[in-house]
Amino acid sequence: KTGYVGNIIPRGEHHYSQWTINHYLRIAEKANDYKIMINSHESVRPTGLSRTYPNWVAAEAARGTEFEAFGGNNPDHQTILPFTRFMGGPMDYTPGIFQTKLDYYFPGDTRFVKTTLAKQLALYVVMYSPLQMAADLPENYAKHMDAFQFIKDVAVDWDDTKILSAEPGDYIHTARKAKGKDEWYVGGITDENTRNFTVDFSFLPKGKKYEATIYADGDDADYIKNPQSYKIYKKNVTSKSKLPMKLARSGGYAISVKVIK
User: Can you give the residue range of the structural domain that contains 227?
Assistant: First the structure.
């Protein structure tokens, strides 16, 4: 993972200058010679170059998770990126933040990541990156290993993608088929408003039965008041199934769908 925080060296160049653009390309080309993957952070917005350089698997190149706490990102930010930033290629949004309040580390600090825990799981499906992060501290995951199971299970690359429903700035619900497996993963997120949504599993192959493990916002979940409230349950589903979901404010849900053999 390369990073370009702060002023570029040589002084006087910028993240978007021709010299720095050439630098990004030189890094991708040289890394390719050694069969090394590149995930560039704070780089310029990509324009499909991951197709030219397949080893350039991801780039941040937009305001990632940290900006939710350090300023700038509102709860609708992630519902917009799939229609803007992601048009240029995969993004490492650094998802997976389970402890969202900085007061936990620095008493009195009022900043926080504007999300529920369940929404963080949904980002692994909604935001495409073949190299994903588990961006929180190990001890925070150790407290929620039941929820961390989704991060362990979820694929990083896909054979198929279905956008079940979306409105930029409001919500997006995405289903993806794991590459080379008979498994699907579904993620849905919302902005600062609570929402109801019914997941229609008609994207599943007909005639097969699947076990769905649902990671949802808890009944009292709220991105400000109770972000770590979630519930996990299982349900058998087919292509005819429909599943109602309730999303908390800046909340979401994630579902792993595995074939029953």
Answer: 62-259
C-alpha closest to that of 31 among 1, 60, 55, 49: 55
What is this structure's pTM? Answer: 0.95
pLDDT of residue 170: 98
Place of tokens 């299970």: 153
56-59: strand order across its sheet: 2-3, 38-41, 56-59
DSSP-based three-state secondary structure for 40: strand
Angle between helices 145-153 and 117-126 (to 10 degrees): 0
Question: The domain spanning residue 138 has which CATH number?
Answer: 3.20.20.70
66 counts as catalytic: yes
Burial of residue 259, with CB atoms counted within 10 A of its CB: 0-12 exposed, 13-18 middle, 19 or more buried: middle
Q: Could you give the number of structural domains in the chain?
A: 1
Catalytically annotated residue among 66, 68, 139, 183: 66
